[in-house]
Amino acid sequence: MTAQRPASVTLVEVGPRDGLQNESRLLSTDTKVEMIRRLAAAGLKRIEAASFVNPTRVPQMADAEAVLARVVGMPGLGVSGLVLNERGFERALAAGLREISFVAVATDAMAARNQGTTARGLVEAWGRLAGRAQAAGLFRSVTIAVAFGCPFEGEVPLARVIEIARALAESGLDEICLADTIGVATPAAVEARFSALAQAVPGLPMRAHFHNTRNTGYANADAALRSGVTVLDASLGGLGGCPFAPGATGNIATEDLAAMLERDRVATGVSLAALTDATRWLEAAMERRLPAHGAHVSPWPAVPAA
User: Fold this and answer.
1) Among the options 184, 242, 248, 292, which is catalytic?
2) pLDDT digits (tens, 9 = 90+) for 171-214
3) Contact 151, 116 (CB under 8 A)
């Protein structure tokens, strides 16, 4: 049986990293910093601001250090960066981050495309980084990508996801996330996988990352909340996608997710009006309309107190 929705949930804004990494339009460092500033002003407390990757493979993240130099240390804001290897970890330390995200992958085919290794190789890589990150006092969030389905191998067995989760947890981490990288999850699959995850790594905070490729992302987010998840990723405007997963489209939109949660009286601490303004600003910067709906519909009256 699934649990009740929590009274509050933490939203992790991934737009500056996952949202922008799949865009052909390259935004300036100034624009990225302004995006993060607007998100923080809207009430987002955790923002994934950059990734430490090869700029020839992901040119959108070529200015990671320049962006972080201007946003790390903003009052009340936790800034994280995506780390894929030891070189990325060293860059994260040098940038002054207090939180890192690491991505393991549930299939060998996706691991080869995304990081040039195997699923086991990524688990071993985390084993080399986990202790160093703990010693440096960093909050360690680890995501298992393609946890619900792989664009190259198809269905991913639940047993494989749980095996990887246990191995990652043995090395040490502070939060574990399952990612529907290509948007193939369903609410029933979400409930099953997070219920199994909670039993496999009891007491470890769970996070969820959903893409809305097949228009199931918001239903999946609700299912995750009813399965013990307390942290949800989202991207301003619904931007996003994976450069190494053919056909992958955007993340669930921060403003649409926040609106749904507000209607269900799940506290997020964010301002819908400020998010709407931020999306309209970002659309002007991107010179196109973004997938989110919230910025383009009439405002709804505030939900009265229960």
Assistant:
1) 242
2) 999 999 999 999 999 999 999 999 999 999 999 999 999 999 99
3) no
What CATH number should be reported for the domain whose range is 10-296? Answer: 3.20.20.70
Residues in the chain: 306
Handedness of CA 39, 58, 157, 124 (dihedral sign): negative
**150 in catalytic set:** no
Q: Name the token pair of 228.
A: 């013990």
| pTM of the predicted protein model | 0.94
Q: Where are the domains of the chain?
A: 10-296
Q: Alpha-carbon distance 275 to 257, whole Å?
A: 11
Each residue's pLDDT tens digit, 269-286: 999 999 999 999 999 999
Model pLDDT for residues 167-180, shown as the tens digit of each residue: 999 999 999 999 99
